Fold these 2 entries.
Entry 1:
Amino acid sequence: MSDVRVDGSRFRERFESFNEIGATESGGVNRPALSDENREARDTLVEWFEDAGLSVTVDEMGNIFGRREGANPDLAPVLFGSHVDSQYNGGRFDGIVGVLGALEVVETLNDADETTERPLEVVAWSNEEGVRFQPDMLGSGVFCDVFDREYAYSREDKDGNRFGEELERIGYRGEAPCEPRDLHCYFEVHVEQGPFLEQEELPVAAVEGVFGFSWMNVSFEGQANHAGPTPMDMRHDALVGASDVIQAVRRITATGGVDLVGTVGSLDVWPNAINVIPETVELTVDFRSYDDAAVDAAVEQIEAEIAHVAEREGLDYEFEQIMRVDADPFDADCIETVVDAIEERGHDYTRLVSGAGHDANYLNTICPTSMIFVPSVDGISHRESEFTEWEDVLVGTDVLLGAVRRKADEV
Ligand code: HGY
Ligand code: MN
Ligand code: MN
């Protein structure tokens, strides 16, 4: 295989200009799924895909595919990419490195005038973050038959906007069916979003799997009343109920298994007034572990705690698990392909399991899959100060190039 390398300056220029879209004052980006900023990002991506000679397809979930023909069009393609939707005030690297890195791999092969045996497809998945529309990984989830399209279209943001209508509004409700199809394999390069690679002073990791996780919506309904004259034993305070759940999540993770993590990330109080006993509280719970039994046990425990607290405080409650993805290890051969690509470049590396969810979780259920990680400075992500050194981004992208070329010539 001839020695070709990604073009760091072209990639850097593209990365910087892409991140001007929805740029925030503090150096992050604000491009939540299906927002106007997300539309602008999508439009830019389609233009760049077309400039790189890719034939672009947008499917029913707004997933954007760019196809580069190989010598043998009948062979199943090698798919690689990530997502371009961001957190509210999120980082500039999460997802973007994987999509623009995939485009850079195509450009590098174009420069080398190299035709692979198999077709290549670059992809930008819709709604990976799941912050505006829950659950996350909705675009890849429908593509992998985890969710049906109508369910996805029905998901609402906090203002009651529906996913399907917002997709229509931004012009990305494509015609192509969003369903599983024959893929040779899937790769995704992504920032680690944790501290390990930086602590070990390593530039890259072959990812062996992703934590399983559960997302839950919880709501308590008590009774609003005056904060002054209402005796304590007559209160039905929804926020007291919620506070017990938050403590219980911490308690469950302390004893629930070595890598079990739990988060209450979102909490809405109504009427949220200083002198009114809270009537309703809506909160979310996120449990994750590489041990699926630990996640399931944690979900069971928190549901029991919610029922107990509601009983004690005289509250009504609702509990819904809106998403459960298993911790399935990635494909051994795809992992070793990544390792071969790393070793060919002579990099020190390690093997990691991801605590963050990725579209690769779902692709792993329909085709051989693995990922490549590059370090996150201070282990930070989902924050505007998220950062990865550019030479590390290039290491990861070069490894993606090596892995894709290996798989694309398998017949
Ligand atoms: O939640 C996650 O891990 C991903 O950012 N959607
Ligand atoms: Mn991501
Ligand atoms: Mn993310």
Entry 2:
Amino acid sequence: MSPEVQRAAEILKRGGLVAFPTETVYGLGADASSKEAVARLYAAKRRPADHPVIVHFASAQAAFEWARDVPQAARALAVRFWPGPLTMILRRSAKAGDFVTGGQGTVGLRVPRHPVAQALLHAFGDGIAAPSANRFGQISPTTAAHVREDLGKDVDLVLDGGPSEVGIESTIVDLSGPQPVLLRPGAVAAAMLEEALGTPIASRQEDSPRHSGGLERHYAPRTPAKLVPTHELDPQIARLRDKVAVLAFSRPDERVDYWLRMPREPVAYAQKLYAALRELDSAGCEMILIEAPPEAPEWAGVRDRLVRATT
Ligand code: TXA
Ligand code: MG
């Protein structure tokens, strides 16, 4: 094990905060069994205390100790998708304190597959609470540099594992009720979950448990941003007098000050999305126009983040 990972595990044991790479986005980690450590985590994120955090584990076996009445569906999804970009909401066991569940009867569990995350989880040996390593409501970090820009001195150590491979946060599926419910779309698509479970998945209802990803505006740049259908992009650009930045599939337009061209394929698009939003946000424009992605199901994760960034 690398000395840095060892040091990171020791910092966590002492109640400190360690940012670490996962395949989705960077997480800000704290000892999930320590009320004080999790309180520091919330303070660093400036996150309201009633929002639950995801607890990360090295293996499904370790994760399920934090849950009770683990349904067969959860075991099936674990076999198929863990380690990987999937979070399951299950009824909590006594190990999951109110301070990680936001006082709810359920807990969010995930086994990430990034090798540095795996090494850290093995070295630490128990659950690590980790929301995305950004301030509450802002764009999630997909590089170690993003974390340092956002959190600066508020984090004791940042482990650098390169750019995140997936680029958007994990899929969240709630298995605590009578029927599986998709709370947040991500790289593990609803169709993949349905195939693995052999049952349909419902989409989030308005009254499902609080989760910050469920707030309307989230993952948001500071610059006002607007989602624009492809056929409206050109007329909108023609009408605007402000300095504008554009995120689009097509080639740059010379009337526009700052243009980023995105891949026409959802996996590659997701990987670049947050770095692109950060870049456009710091370009000093009055407005960011974002070309709407296709309506197809494989774009659900990207579309969800773009809608939130522009609401
Ligand atoms: O990809 C990810 O999931 C990243 C990496 C670091 O693992 N983490 C992440 O955490 O996105 P965070 O805290 O930014 O978003 C986690 C979402 C929040 O919307 C939270 O409220 C929800 O999961 N959540 C956690 N526990 C929950 C629970 N018991 N019931 C409902 N939602 C829950
Ligand atoms: Mg987050």
